[in-house]
Amino acid sequence: MSAVRQTWQVTLRGIRVFVRQPAYVALTLAQPLIWLLLFGALFRAITQIPGFHGGSYINFLTPGIVVMLAVSSAGWTGMGFIEDIAGGVMDRQLASPVWRGALNAGSVIYAAMVVALQTVLIVLLALVLGAHYVGGFGGVMLLILVAALLAAAFASLSNGVALLARQREALIGTVSFVILPLTFLSSALMAQNLVPAWIRTVARFNPVNWAVEAGRSAAMQHIDWGLVASRIGLLLALTLISATLATRAFARYQRSL
Amino acid sequence: MAEAILAAELRKSYPPGVQALDGLDLSIEAGTIFGLLGPNGAGKSTTVRVLSTLTRPDSGSARVAGIDVTADPVAVRRAIGVVGQKHGSAPEATGRENLVEQGEFYGVSGRELRRRVADSLERFGLGDAAERRAKTYSGGMLRRLDIAMGLLHRPAVLFLDEPTTGLDPEARADIWREIERLAGEEKMTILLTTHYMEEADRLASRLAIVDRGRVVAEGTPEELKSELRGDTIHIELAEGGRVDARETLAELAEVEEVSLAGTTLHARAANGGVAIPAVLAALDAAGVRARSVTLARPSLEEVYLRHAGRAFAQANSEHEEVAT
Questions:
Q1: Which of B18, B58, B72, B290 has an alpha carbon within 20 to 30 A of B116's alpha carbon?
Q2: pTM for the complete prediction?
Q3: ipTM of this model?
Q4: CB contacts, 8 Å: A6 with chain B
Q5: Is A19 on the interface with B (CB under 8 A)?
Q6: Hey, are the CB atoms on A95 and B82 less than 8 Å from each other?
Q7: CA gap A35, A221 in Å, rounded
């Protein structure tokens, strides 16, 4: 019970930063819209590639943009820890008996909430642009769930890297190194039957691709329950593993103090 | 009376080979303010980090409020309050929100938490600023908020790591009054680190001088000062490397002890005013030119000089050179 309240306090701290900085809110909400419009314009032609069976371009791209945004938004979560370390917030927290898991979980839940909000915006704009949600309301909810899970997993990993590296530069380097390859090694922007075989193979082990496949199947197609359930299961496992790793990283960080 | 803090043979090093603690021993009686005095990099903050369970020592043992810091760190955390050098409050949260968060971290909640938060906002003069974001606070207000947060769960032992560094004199006096009140009315044990002699002299009932990771002198401020038995004459020489100048003064009957650090001679004398003419005459006879002469009455700075062998300012600047 107190673990839940402690987690909520940390989430609340994130929400306060979010709502009390109007410029930050505006950018966070504008970003998904710009991405959808830009990528939509850029990739319109892929539907003309022979062998493309993804349906309308907006239908194909919407889940891809959602997932890309989830990764790149949540990937920077660790910056909050870096700031806490540079100020005195982290030391103050660690000198208290607060459950370490709450410090990570609280920030991860906040990151997932932001991504869920951004996903709702993308879904609505795509609807205006002519997307057809074959999976209906339930399918869209599953897409949001998948995006939030992926965001949670990457937010934990980002927090873990922040605790181990403690340097802004190291986190920026790691995050920017990881995000684009993971996106391009998935079917976010390109149909899997049109990419080289080795990319298809790698994509099977790529969490970003699990999220794209599950989200696309649930929201945009006649849902393949086996596929969606298995990918959600994998994402859930990844989220738990990365949260455990991030929580353990606090002890590593303290040893270096 | 029982010891609130007991540390034995604490050692800790940081890569690459910096020995932050080098066999540090401490024994602090419950209900007292204990000052840990030393230049930057002497090991004061590392001592606080080890005793407050933020980090572990490489070797040695410590008990705080009767609990072993390495065996049961969580129990120690419940018993202590920690106010670090940097501000611990979240800048985007208000004073009240910061206190509520801190309370929840220590398992205080509900009506009891709301009551304690309201009380401490009043007590620390933050009542009017309670709903303002911490980032709009002045340095003195942030410090008061830090201390309020450190006290919310009513700890038995409070760590204050350089609580007044960077504050203006008025805010500093404010914090001093609060610390004195805590020790007086609430019988709290307080471990205070500082590099201000004045602060240690005024607040601490006992203090330890720390240099290079170990305690080099310990006692009440008066004991430490009386140990000096006299004044110190500082002579700034016109040229360095005059070892003969030190030998010249060592032969004088009026002078008890001489040391040479760079271009400065430190001569100790029972009565400095009487010794100065003799000192100057002897230097003149030896052909040593003095740029300036100052006389210092017994002070903690002189105590530090005696035990650590170099002036505070010098040790601090040495540290800064290493840091840059």
A1: B72
A2: 0.86
A3: 0.91
A4: 104-105
A5: no
A6: yes
A7: 22
